[in-house]
Design goal:
237 residues, alpha/beta, 5 helices, membrane, LiaF_TM
């Protein structure tokens, strides 16, 4: 499992590195007046496309794939608009955001991948008892206190919003992996003091920060991997 995690993280970083190099080459050719790309391609559409491709490659859920595809699509539409190929007006098309978010919410309800409150405990656990979380915050905040005796990880996405997950009442049997994706947003994880936290994330104009106490042993490991693009990920007790 450790080798799989390292291999996947290395491949993901390689893909990101290639995308950044390509973007740099395009900007360099534009600055040297070799290609006329300044009007068609600017910094912001490239950011959406790169973030979307990274999300598509790194996600393990259908919701993450939809989110990544949406970011790529938005970047492409803006570029096509700048090239006068299509007429894309954000002020006119902003209701599409509500439509997309509604479709995503319905999909979550049908698949049952949501957190529900349990009686007698100040916390929440996943509905199917799988010990997995699938949390998304877009243009808003998501805050949950999770309780499960066998936490196995999951996926957390924050796009222009914030996610706060309190796991201090949960436990890990051996090892759990959380994939995080913070794009213009922030993710905060609160973990028990007996968990060993391993950060394998990649910050891009953002940051990963750990503020946890030294555990007595390494019997419970939480691996936090993913990306913070102009955002931040913090793990603390």
């Amino acid at each position: 499992m450790k080798n799989d995690i390292k291999s996947r993280g290395a491949k993901s970083q390689m893909v990101l590195g290639v995308l950044v190099i390509m973007a740099g080459l395009l900007f360099l050719l534009d600055n040297l007046d070799i290609l006329e790309l300044h009007r068609a391609i600017s910094f912001w559409p490239i950011v959406f496309i790169v973030a979307g491709l990274v999300k598509l490659y790194d996600t393990q859920t259908r919701g993450g794939q939809l989110m990544g595809a949406g970011l790529v699509g938005l970047g492409v539409l803006i570029i096509l608009d700048r090239m006068d190929i299509i007429d894309f007006n954000v002020r006119t098309m902003w209701p599409l955001f509500f439509i997309g978010f509604g479709i995503y919410t319905i999909w979550q309800a049908r698949t049952g991948k949501r957190l529900v409150r349990i009686d007698g405990v100040k916390g929440e656990q996943d509905l199917n008892g799988e010990g997995l979380v699938d949390v998304t915050a877009v243009l808003g905040g998501f805050e949950r206190r999770v309780y499960t005796p066998d936490f196995r990880g999951g996926e957390i996405t924050a796009i222009m919003g914030g996610c706060a997950l309190d796991l201090r009442n949960s436990s890990i049997q051996k090892e759990a992996v959380i994939n995080v994706f913070a794009f213009w947003g922030g993710v905060t994880l609160k973990v028990p003091p007996d968990w060993t936290v391993v950060l394998n994330g990649t910050p891009i104009m953002g940051g990963f920060e750990e503020k946890t106490a030294t555990p007595p042993d390494n019997s419970k490991r939480l691996i936090v991997q993913g990306y913070a693009i102009m955002g931040g990920v913090e793990v603390r007790n």
